[in-house]
Amino acid sequence: MEEKVQQRVCISFCFRLGKTGAETYEMLQAAFRESCLSRSKTFEWYSCFKNVRRSFEDDPYPGRPSTSHTEETVARVREIIRIHRHLTVRDIAEDVGKAFSTCQKILTEDMQMRRAKFLPRLLTAEQKDNRVSICTDLCERAQNDPNLMSVVITGDESWV
Length: 160
Known about the structure:
Helix content: 55-70%
Shape: elongated
Low-confidence stretches: none
Order of helices and strands: HHHHHHH
CATH class of the domain at 65-122: Mainly Alpha
Radius of gyration: 27 Å
Structural class: mainly alpha
CATH topology of the domain at 65-122: Arc Repressor Mutant, subunit A
Distance between the termini: 48 Å
């Protein structure tokens, strides 16, 4: 977003210097390369500055603010995921009674979860403790039972 505002400032500057829209676009391409605004957006902003626009920020969007993304909704989604990790986003949206996109945003942005099976990106303290206790138990069993590895099934994808 910051880079778009910088490009708009550059467009305004070029307009005030008396450059044409095409010259302005060429200069933006040279300066910003792959992240350059499209040709149509460059000309759109050029004409806005030509019509005495002074602001470089986007105009506010019309409409109501979102009322479905609340702390209560986040808490409900968190509780559902804690109990049933196998649910899909669509199932969660039905349970909560909110839009699919709202639930998806809560899961990915607020709860920092991946899409595949809604596993947290970082383990909680309780999950870390469980992993340590399981690994400790396995190490003890391996030391006390020399035949443990003979009953463990291993393999690769070729046998499936």
